[in-house]
Amino acid sequence: MRQFYTLLYIVALFSCSLVFACKNHFAHLTSYPIMRTYPTKWIEDSLEMLSFFPIMADDSLKNVLKRTKPSDWEQVGWRGYTFANGV
Length: 87
Fold this sequence. Notes:
By secondary structure, the protein is mainly alpha-helical. The protein has one domain (about 1-85). The protein has 4 helices and 2 strands, in the order ααααββ. Strands 1-2 form a two-stranded antiparallel sheet. Helix 1 packs antiparallel against helix 2 and helix 2 crosses helix 3. The mean pLDDT is about 80.
């Protein structure tokens, strides 16, 4: 049960920082580097995340996050959490 509450807490922090555009908070919550497929470059640190945040946190992502439920999220090893199987 404790793990479920931890998941709820993390999902709430993550979702709120994106939905309410708290880019500094989101950058602090994120583990780096974020490895992305070529030709998109990796996000190496929180400073790079701050510049990428407005592109990533667009209305389509915010709308999806507003509709997710805790059961849509799952832990992916030590790297963190994903929702909707990484979609």
